[in-house]
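Hi Y.,

Following your request, here is the sequence exactly as I used it, all 126 residues.
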Amino acid sequence: QVQLVESGGELVQAGGSLRLSCAASGRTFSSYDMVGWFRQAPGKEREFVSAIVWGGSNTYYADSVKGRFTISRDNAKNTVYLQMNSLKPEDTAVYSCATRVYGRLSYTDVGGYDNWGQGTQVTVSS
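Below is the corresponding structure, written out as tokens. Let me know if you'd prefer a different format.
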């Protein structure tokens, strides 16, 4: 079983940037097909943000973050990053990373992911 730890969340002004990290231990990301980022705002359901194919170069983004967020990975550090630029108040949420093995569910579906981190809070002030 892999353990995931997110970090990098904090309070930032609108228009600012943050870089989130998702570090794996106990098992490497190479044991999984994809790593995804999701977020959950108060009173809302968890939603897909971005995902990266671990063994390839494909990346995926929600329309709401496309062009502002960039997902990347560092194989040697067994870490996935989410660079977030031009942040907006509506980006405020707890951001979590998770691992996925290919299956019948879409990469945007929460149910398609198994291991989850505890999340890191991102707050964007206006």
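The chain has no helices and eleven strands.

Thanks again,
Q.
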